[in-house]
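Students often ask why we bother encoding 3D structure as a string. The short answer is that it lets us treat folding as translation between two languages. Here is a chain of 222 residues written in the first language.
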Amino acid sequence: MASRPAQWSGATSGVFHLQRFAKRGAHVVLHVLTTSVGSESDIKRIDMNKATKSYEKKDFEFPYDPFRPALGQTSRMTLAYLGEREWDDEEVDTRVTIALAIARLQWVLLQGRAQLCGLFDEDDVRVLMTCFQNQLFSPEEIRRLPTSLCDEYGIDLDRYRQSRLGPLVDKILGLDRPSLVALADALEHAWRGVGKEKAVGAEAFEALGIELLDSEDESETA
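And here it is in the second language, the structure alphabet:
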């Protein structure tokens, strides 16, 4: 197995702390799915004991893959969110906490997607997909989107307006937090597909309700 980056030490400990949520969390996901879809017969059946068994092993380790850094950087926020909501209220248990968190995230995404409409064109999407290939974004990586874009293309952020990516970087720098989250989410979908048709690339943006500019329209505006 390939050696893990040094910064993964915190990520590994984060997963061990998450073990106490693992068994309960697996059942929570099933509950949320069945509540949303309608019945257990409508979704793929999951062997919960098997799904959580790996988390109970003393020798549990992260497999080496490109998504573990994002998950590791996120674990502290996940634990903080769940820890803040360990209330002495039988009606507000973990499944309610997770269901509300997902609903709130979706609400934020809808707000952000609406603000992205008419801002980017297909060329912008191609440039962003080339930079962020098959990436999952942690909150810190979302915050660093414009910086990471400039770094990838060897552009000094202080002089980005002199580069060919100046207009695109300006668009990203002008986004508020919900819009940045929505952009990162759309890029994840652009690589993996949206809906039954598995729309990818620029079509994924459109499938999420993010209307793209025609390149001709943008040139006229400029």
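Translate back mentally: The two ends are 51 Å apart (CA to CA). Keep this in mind for the problem set.
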